[in-house]
Each structure stands twice: as structure tokens, then as C-alpha cells.
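Subject: for your reference before the review

Hello V.,

The reviewers asked for a structural picture of the protein, and I figured it would be easier to keep everything in one thread rather than splitting it across files. Below is the amino acid sequence we used in the manuscript, unchanged from the supplementary table.
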Amino acid sequence: MSQVVAQRSPSALPASPNEMRERGNGSLLKPIRRVRLYENAVEQIQALILSKEYKPGDRLPSERSLAEHFHISRHSLREALRILDVMGLIEIQVGDGIYVKEVDFLPYIESLNLSIGSRLQMEQDSFVKLWGARRILEMGMVDLAAKQITESLLKRLWWCIEEMKKDIDHQDAFISAGIRFHRLIAEIAQNEILIFIWDMLANLMRKSQNRIYRIPWSPKKALYAHKKIYLALKAKDSAKAVEAMRQHMLDEEKALVAALEKGKA
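And here is what came back from the structure prediction:
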């Protein structure tokens, strides 16, 4: 692609008004983002599910077949499946297969996601406001979850913590396990509307979580925070669960601000 504006030598004449307008328009153009392989797989499978090509209850092709179809590694394919699982689009049944879940209202939420995402200028103020909204939502959901927690759900939450511990040095896997932990709490609360809102916020904030991870102290602190939330839920102590979640969200906001400030330097 040719350059939008040619570079002017130091001795060139001052730019004309037309040239200035042209440069102004050119400055609005941004480099095309290099999409990771697993993100492309997520987008394609998501589109097939939302368009009803794959219907609730349908079994997706095997991991091997999907990886071969997308020309990506099994590792990248598994990361795509993790994200789709977190989004509530699929269910991975170990030893059985990958199944499409029932997704009532999801196309509307997806449309809202795109609408909000296109309007938000993802700068520091917007990111922090989104995180503040998530903090309020997460505190309410963990309060509900503490009253409805079961042993089977505790096992699933602990599995997420084990995955975070195992993958603490692997950014994508660590973040995905953390997201799964929080979405499980949303599911425990058994409020479909809250889950939809959570999904919307989580999708909008995925980029900010990548930035948070890169703050040196953040992954270990996040792992510790998830353990505290888990223990409070295990004890069915709503007050401690809410406080643990509040502190976790504040720590994440602090890491996000640090990451954004670092990006300006």
C-alpha cells in the first residue's frame, strides 16, 4: 500500500491548505492490527454459531480436524476453544467432544458489543471506567454466588486456579483461566442477564487484561486474589467474598493504570 502522505524534505516549501487537510485525514488512519492465529479461529467459529450454521447441541469437529482446517497448531486451536468456552458459546466435554451451547439473546449482546466497542475510544479514561463498572458487577455476583455455591462448582473454580498456577508464565493461558474463574462465578449467580452483561464487559476489556498481565507483580497477585475469593466462597461467607473481590478489582485497576501510564512513556 502506498504511503498516504509523502515525506517532505527540510528544504521543501510550506504545505498548502489542501496538503494540510490531506495530512490531517492521513493521520486518522491506523496501522492494520496483526491478528493472532487463534483470534481468527475464534471469529470464524463464533460467526458459524451466531449464524446458526452450528446449532445448540451440535458437536464440532475434533481438535485435530479444526487445527488442520484453520492451518494452525493444536496449541493455538486450544486457546481459541478456551476463549469460546469463556464466551459461553461451546462446552468442552473431556473425552467426549466439543458441543455448541444454547445461546439465547447472544446475537443481541454481540451487536451491542460491536456498537459500544466502535464508540469507545480505548484510552485510559475509558478503560478505567469499564473496569469500575466490572468491579460493581463482580461484587454483586460473588455475593449471590456465596449463597448458592456447591461442591461441584467449587471443584471447577479450583481447577481454574490450578490452571492459572500452571500457566502463570504463559500470558494467554493464564488470562483465559482467570476469565473462566470469573465467568463461573457469574454462572453460579444464576442470573442470565448478569451473565450477558458480564460477557459484554469481558469482551471489551480483553485488551486491557493483556496489558495488566505485563505488569511484573500482577500475575502472582491475581493468583493470590483468586485463592482468597475461592476460600471465601468455600466458607459461604458473602462479606469476605465481596471484600476479596473488591480488593482484587482495585488491584487490577491499579495495574491497568500503571500499564497505561507505562505505554505513554
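For the response letter, the relevant points are probably these. DSSP finds twelve helices and two strands in the chain. The CA atoms of residues 131 and 253 lie 7 Å apart.

Happy to draft the paragraph if you're swamped.

O.
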